[in-house]
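*** Query protein ***
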Amino acid sequence: MIRIGIVGLGFMGYTHFTAAQKLRGGKITAVASRDPKKRSGDWTGLRGNFGPPAGKVDLSKISAHESVDDLLADPEVDLVDICLPTKLHEEVAKKAAAAGKHVFVEKPIAPDLAAADRMVKACEKAGVLLMVGHVLPYVPEFRYLHEATEKKKYGKLRAAHFARVICPPAWSDDVQDFSAVGGWGADLHVHDTHFISLLCGVPHKVFSRGVLREGLIEHVQTEYVWKAPAPNPPVGCVAGGIASKGHDFRHGFEAHFEKATILFSGGTLAGEPEEDRPLTVISQGGQVRQPSLKGGDEWFSPFAAELQAAVKGVKEHAAPRVLSGALARDALKVVAAETKSVKAGGKLTTV
C-alpha cells in the first residue's frame, strides 16, 4: 500500500483528497495545514474553477500535521502530494526529496525554469521520483486524442491546432498573483506545451506572437517546429488570459490524421458549462461519430486517474512518462522559449 501525505489543503488539496478515495493500492495517511479548522476536517468554503465546493471531511484515521516538516518526518508517508501555491513547490519538493519521500506535485512544476531544474536535480540526487500532475492527458477527450496518436489508430498525425483561453480568474488569490504563478504561460498554457510534447516530442524551436505583462505571457499564439528527421507536422496553439469577463474558460483541439479528423471544444461561459463540439471523429469517407469515452464522469475522475498512475509509479519505482518531472520541466522550457520569441517580435527561437 502506497501511503500518501497531502501538503496544502486548498481546493486542489481537497480535489486530490476526494480523488484518492478511489485509489487501488494507495491511500491518504496524512495531511498538513497551518489552519486548525482544516486539520479538524472542516473544509467548508473551499472552491475552485470546477467541481463543487468542499464541506466537512473525515480525518479520524488520518494524521493531521501542523507543518510540512512534521508530515515529512511521518514514517507512514511514502509519497508527498504537494498542492501548495506554485511559488512554494520548489522548497517543499526539495525538502521531501531530502527526507527520502517520493514527490507528486500539482502543475506547473514551478513558476520558472531555473526552479524546475533544481527540483529535477534534487530528486535525481536523492533517488526519489518526481512526478507532476499535468491532468490534461487524463481528461477523457484529450486522453482519446493521446491514445489515437500513440497507437496510430487513424494513421499518422498530419496537423493539429489547440486552444486554451480564459478571462482573468477571480476564484483564487493565488492565481491572481500574476508573477507568482509565472504568468498565464506557466500557469495555464503549460497544459498545452506539455500535451503537445507528449504527442509529438518536445519541440526544437518555436515562433510566437503575443501579449506580455511583467515580462510574462498574458496571451500567445505559437507554431512549433521539431528537429528533422522526426515527424514535423504543423502544430499550433493559442492560449492566454485576456478574454472578456464571462469567457470563463474554453479549450479544445482540431487534429487531422491520415484517416480521420478529431474535433473537440468545450468550457464554461458566464458561469455555465458549455460543450459546443463534443469529441467528434470524422472519417476520410465523411462518416461522423461521437465515440464513447473512458475515464469516469465524476468531476474528480481525471485526478483519480493521474493519482492512480503516480501510485503505480512508486510501486515500480519508475515515473510514467505522462507524469515525468523531466517532461514537465521541458514543457516549462517551451513556455520560456515562447516568451523569448514574443519579446523578439516573433523570431524563431530554440527551446
